[in-house]
UniProtKB/TrEMBL annotation:
One Pfam entry name: ABC_tran
Keyword Nucleotide-binding among record annotations: yes
GO cellular component, as recorded: plasma membrane
InterPro entries assigned to the protein according to its UniProt record, in alphabetical order: AAA+_ATPase, ABC_transporter-like_ATP-bd, ABC_transporter-like_CS, ABC_transpr_LolD-like, P-loop_NTPase
Keywords linked to the UniProt accession: ATP-binding, Nucleotide-binding
GO MF annotation, one: transmembrane transporter activity
Species this protein is from: Litoreibacter roseus
This protein's name: ABC transporter ATP-binding protein
Domain ABC transporter: 6-233
Keyword ATP-binding set for record: yes
């Protein structure tokens, strides 16, 4: 276990007139793994977007300390996590830039962040994720499952402090799900990343033993509140 990576209280967003998604409490240290496992539409992707700062928080008072130990007000136009290389995010859909090769996609965040490319780690990721030989293909020239694995390699290349995975194995056939999840677990451990995984399949995959965030639904003033929380550490 390393230092604290995530400390969140009441980070939320209102989606339309009837629904709010809230991350009520989340505390994680390096190496921790937490699974968001709730029904479709419960707000798992939204919660990840809030944590990443990709979805601006609104309507709730709360605090976020994430990575940079900076307190952020929910009304700030965007969250400031310090340098962008510290979060890796595997999105659920539209995950790769179509005009770049697999390798260019994988390297892009590290290049944007101005990080030094760790070529040995890159070669390891390519081999472990079964992508060797596919480096120079465009996303349309590889399978959907291979695209997901490219996105996983891209998210891990910078050894992020926090790795956010949104249904990262949803496009894989059942025979490969366990294998790729186990790989994610080992590679994230190698990278010393804390991991938040949104997945319906985690209950029976490699993350079956991981901690789960509690999920509950409350009605407040006619608005459905979908709330994720984990015990504080
Ligand atoms: N901009 C928006 N305005 C209103 N409602 C929205 C908006 N974006 C998403 N929603 C709704 O918010 C809910 C949460 O969506 P989200 O994608 O976070 O759920 P999820 O738990 O990740 O679902 P899935 O498991 O199907 O991917 C859904 O019911 C969705 O229809």
């Amino acid at each position: 276990m390393g230092g604290q990576v995530v400390h969140i209280r009441n980070l939320g967003v209102r989606l339309g007139p009837e629904l709010a998604v809230i991350v009520e409490a989340m505390d994680m240290s390096a190496g921790d793994v937490v699974v968001l496992d709730a029904e479709s539409g419960a707000g798992k992707s939204t919660a990840l977007g809030l944590i990443a700062g990709a979805i601006p928080a609104s309507a709730f008072d709360g605090t976020v300390h994430c990575l940079s130990n900076t307190e952020i007000t929910p009304h700030a136009p965007r969250l400031d996590y310090g340098s962008p290389d510290r979060i890796g995010f595997v999105l659920q859909t539209n995950i790769l830039l179509p005009y770049l090769t697999a390798l260019e996609n994988i390297r892009l965040p590290v290049e944007i962040a101005g990080q030094t490319l760790d070529t040995a780690w890159l070669t390891h990721l390519l081999g472990a994720l079964g992508l060797s030989g596919l480096e120079y293909r465009k996303p349309t020239e590889i399978s959907v499952g291979q695209r997901q694995r490219v996105a996983i390699a891209r998210a891990l290349l910078g050894r992020p402090d926090l790795l956010l995975l949104d249904e990262p194995v949803s496009a894989l056939d059942p025979g490969n799900v366990g294998q790729v999840e186990a790989l994610i677990e080992v590679l994230a451990e190698d990278a010393k990343s804390a991991v938040i995984l949104a997945s319906h399949q985690a209950a029976r995959g490699a993350f079956a033993g991981a901690r789960r965030a509690h999920h509950r639904v409350e009605q407040r003033d006619g608005v459905t509140h979908s709330i994720f929380a984990m015990e504080t550490v």
